[in-house]
What does this fold into?
Amino acid sequence: MKRQIWCLARLAFAVSALPLLTIDATAQIAVSANDNKAVLVNGANVVPDNPAADTVSIIDLGSAPPKVIGEVKAPASVVGPPQSVAVSRDESYALVTGAFKVDPADPKKAVPDNKLSVIDLKAKPPTVVATLEAGLGAAGVSNQLRWHTGSGRQSQ
It folds into this structure.
């Protein structure tokens, strides 16, 4: 009797685990925001002399090894939460925040910035199609777009 219950339990586990084996990986790209104005020196964040422009790299994860398929100049920042980049579900665009910039009055300091770049990932090569203004120091972004319709319901 115990053997029969054990076999049924194993079968139930195998059947319940089966859907997990059929899940496809949907993300085939990665988007990396590269902040060139922040360098750690002895544990302190400093602005280097004449920093290069910030960039955003688009990386193809579907190839082995992964390869950079494009790079655009766009404000970026390592300061703040890791959600400074969001990619649309269909991988057609990315949103990238630039929370800090080099202080024009003192090039050795970084000050809050308000830039949000919209990058067309389907363009060949990828292109910044809009630069918007967010709040100063905005560092978090999401691809969860919601708006209100005339009926008062939220759509996505």
